[in-house]
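for the recovery benchmark. tokens below, seq after
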């Protein structure tokens, strides 16, 4: 059995220091294990990196609390795996929670991705050998291994039964439908038919990562950034046309390229750690309250470094920084801090220059030019990153450089539609990003 140490990440809006996180983890482990044998735990920071056979295959970064509390009911979240394996494990987070979260039961099962039903009977998931787990406020848990064979691009239904009344943490934009039973209906995690799941949400609640066990994989790439990473535009197929739940983010398209173009022994998983509206720098004067404290450095620990088998990060930040009043110096300071922390962990960093936006002022364009020059220097950020993703060139309108090329534009001049998402994925050099993979 894979035993996990308890982990509380502290304030969700504070910058993360690995030493502090580790100390908190050990302190909480002692107190929690002494207090209750039913309160489970997650791996200590970096304990499983590299993870041997375990790689994060799907992620959805928590960003705030849902507007509605859960009360003695079940949730069924549909996750989309970039790569498969012979077993899975899940992460449940209570990062923004103000009270402990009690999970009475959890299951995993293959899903069609089309509704709340599962393909076959759901399999139970345990936490340190027990079905029940209490996740402390501000904390997270990783499950034990659940034997379940999956393949690349499979949908996986993760179901949790929540007891008591608690407001769950969420990732706001799932770009698909997820499911809940009615309040007071209790445990329906083992249901295959899905009929009890009469309510729905467009967010992803509580579940923030799925690992797969696959010794043939070479690593996990984490896409890290704001709304264009998160997936805004990825359901847009033209005027009055939408394809929710089709998994058409550029990160999904990239994962499909990896599976179709690379042999099994050279493949990597792809996890999405985007949050719409966020910035790289914490110091931009116009950062809105909903995303304050979710800058790149502040959430790096929980959204990237705490994942498993991470060998590379695809860094896509900057346009929100300019819109929020940051200049090139502030943006580059944040880049250097994040890149330093990633490279200190042996994780390679691939960066895109800041992409187009119609509202850029002359000052914004000068700052954008300075950031782009830094990123392009020697094609490795002057030695602080490991490669360049030319997304700015893909998206730029050749006639109006501050706007997105019309065939790729959702209509807001900022976000790429389905065709643009595919174009971004197609420009990524697979030899470059898989050079991060472990040997």
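predicted aa per position
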């Amino acid at each position: 059995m894979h035993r996990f140490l308890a982990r509380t990440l502290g304030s969700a809006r504070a910058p993360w220091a690995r030493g502090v996180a580790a100390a908190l983890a050990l302190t909480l482990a002692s107190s929690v294990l002494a207090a209750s044998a039913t309160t489970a735990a997650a791996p200590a920071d970096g304990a499983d990196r590299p993870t041997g056979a375990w790689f994060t295959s799907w992620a959805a970064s928590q960003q705030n609390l849902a507007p509605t509390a859960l009360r003695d009911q079940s949730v069924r979240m549909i996750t989309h795996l970039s790569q498969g394996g012979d077993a899975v494990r899940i992460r449940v987070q209570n990062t923004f929670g103000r009270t402990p979260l009690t999970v009475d039961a959890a299951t995993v099962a293959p899903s069609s991705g089309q509704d709340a039903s599962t393909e076959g009977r759901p399999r139970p998931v345990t936490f340190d050998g027990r079905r029940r787990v209490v996740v402390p406020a501000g904390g997270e848990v990783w499950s034990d291994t659940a034997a379940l064979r999956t393949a690349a691009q499979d949908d996986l239904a993760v179901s949790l039964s929540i007891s008591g009344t608690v407001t769950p943490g969420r990732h706001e934009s799932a770009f698909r439908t997820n499911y809940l039973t009615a309040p007071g209906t209790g445990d329906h995690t083992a249901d295959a038919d899905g009929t009890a799941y009469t309510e729905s949400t467009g967010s992803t609640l509580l579940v923030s990562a799925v690992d797969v066990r696959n010794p043939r994989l070479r690593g996990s790439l984490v896409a890290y950034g704001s709304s264009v990473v998160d997936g805004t535009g990825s359901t847009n197929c033209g005027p009055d046309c939408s394809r929710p739940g089709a998994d058409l983010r550029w990160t999904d398209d990239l994962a499909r390229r990896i599976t179709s173009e690379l042999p099994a022994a050279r493949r990597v998983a792809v996890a999405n750690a985007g949050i719409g509206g966020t910035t790289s720098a914490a110091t931009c004067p116009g950062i809105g309250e909903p995303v304050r404290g979710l800058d790149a450095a502040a959430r790096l620990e929980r959204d990237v470094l705490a994942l498993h088998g991470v060998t590379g990060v695809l860094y896509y930040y900057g346009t929100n920084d300019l819109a929020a009043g940051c200049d090139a110096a502030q943006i580059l300071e944040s880049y250097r801090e994040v890149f330093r922390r990633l490279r200190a962990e042996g994780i390679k960093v691939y960066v895109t220059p800041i992409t187009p936006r119609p509202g850029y002022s002359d000052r914004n364009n000068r700052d954008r030019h300075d950031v782009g020059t830094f990123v392009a220097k020697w094609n490795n950020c002057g030695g602080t990153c490991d490669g360049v993703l030319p997304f700015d060139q893909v998206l730029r309108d050749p006639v109006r450089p501050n706007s997105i090329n019309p065939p790729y534009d959702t209509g807001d001049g900022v976000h790429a539609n389905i065709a643009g998402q595919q174009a971004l994925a197609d420009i990524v050099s697979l030899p470059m990003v898989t050079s991060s993979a472990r040997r």
